[in-house]
Specification:
By secondary structure, the chain is mainly beta. It contains 4 helices and 35 strands. 3% of the residues lie in helices and 39% in strands. The strands form 8 sheets. Strands 1, 2, 7, 8, 10, 11 and 12 form a 7-stranded mixed β-sheet that branches. Strands 32-13-35-34-33 form a 5-stranded mixed β-sheet. β34 and β35 form a beta hairpin.
Length: 500
Amino acid sequence: MRHAAVAICTGLLIAATPIAGESAPTGVTVAKTGPTAAGSRTVYSSSKLLVSWSATASDQTHHFEIVGRETAQGTEVKASASASATSLTLTGLKALTTYAVVVTSCRNEACTQSSAASSVSAETDTEYWQFRGTGNSVDTLTTAVSDGNARLSATRFGSDAGDMANRVQFYYGPMGVHPSTLAVAVASGPADAANPDSYLSLASRSGSSGLTSLSSGGSLVRSVATGQGVPLARSVSGGKVRLFFEAQGADGKTRVMYIDSADGFFGQDFNAGSATTCTTVADYATGGGCAPTVAIAVEGDAGGNLKILNARQFKLGWPTLDSPHWDMAVGTFMVFTTDAVTDCSTSRMNHVYAVWDGAAWVVQYQANGCPKMFTSAQVAFPLHSGGVRYRLYYGDPSVTEGRGTSTLPFPGPKKLIFADGSVSGLPTVVDFEDWEAQTSARDVVFLWPNGDQLSASAEGYIDDYHLLTPTGSQDLQVMYVAITDGAIAPISAVAILQNP
């Protein structure tokens, strides 16, 4: 896992030796930057701040160092500017977060002799996600796949994926199909920021690909639900897609499982036999063409995880900005939903933390025997932000404002917290302890196509979602969303981050 060009670290600022007679930078200001229109409002970058200053009077300045320290965890972002510079944009910052910024005039490359200005603070903007379509209602939103319903996830392939290079692909639940199916939808070509249809409009392959629930019978797999297609690096797999999915067994318990594609990076055929779909009891049975491997076992299983009665709605976190293909590096993490955990959490939905040790997914536990988890969290999704930094989006089902009487899932308002691997443990691994406390969670703002903000009810009914950088650049960040208004069946819609 590689670090980004802008270094991030923790700890106190270490003062360099002041230069006798040297003047510190003056007129330092820190301000929001990147204004853009979002409906009727002007919003600013959620990850950048513009730092400006006046140059020192001395002609011996070698360069300037700019350090921003945030308030939630005390992590720092550090950058440098030439001796002639009078401004710099700090990047890779946390949304809706205050940064204290110090500009230092350095006399040598190591900055062991310097003069620093007093810190100046500013706050980044919140994230604004705007849906595609027209108006301000669910039924006027643009759908990403015509028959898209729920259980939505998106996959991006890298440049070495042959015919699938740089494309977006869905694994999703198609509308009105019984028994329920985890189907595939494909983009027509490589994602191109100048051509929104290349990543916003996908064609269904329902009926000719994917995994289908059983109408009866079956032991480990009976009912198939949410999936996530993870392309595995050629160096570790020869080039294939590992489809993680949740399935309820004959015992009524739900587990996270996986199966590898039989058609390489196409990721549409997961049956090692002659069929291209997985539909029968024999397919899923031991020795069958679709026999899965259990990734997260539950209490009562051989080698099961204590206090975990069900495992579902999972997502993997790996450095997708470095490569969209997972190299199966040790330390990759997974979050997954479980129910209330006896003596640990009374929340009805929690997200447990598991880490890949190179051979298996290991659920993390505290010393008191409770699994490490984000409490009152549903449909969580981790997004790589560069280096060893991640964002975690999740719904808070304890907030029921706007829920009404609908029986459709209501995960609640969407929250956002951040992680930095440098906070604790190995600096290249994102441990549970590297995440901010949930008390630091920020709100995320969603806008209708006409610019109106979604109500608490409308936001609360956003269910499964998957965030992606379709072109590999953070300049274009897309959220593929399953959404309902509580009355109609969920559809697969798309929201774009307006102020990255």
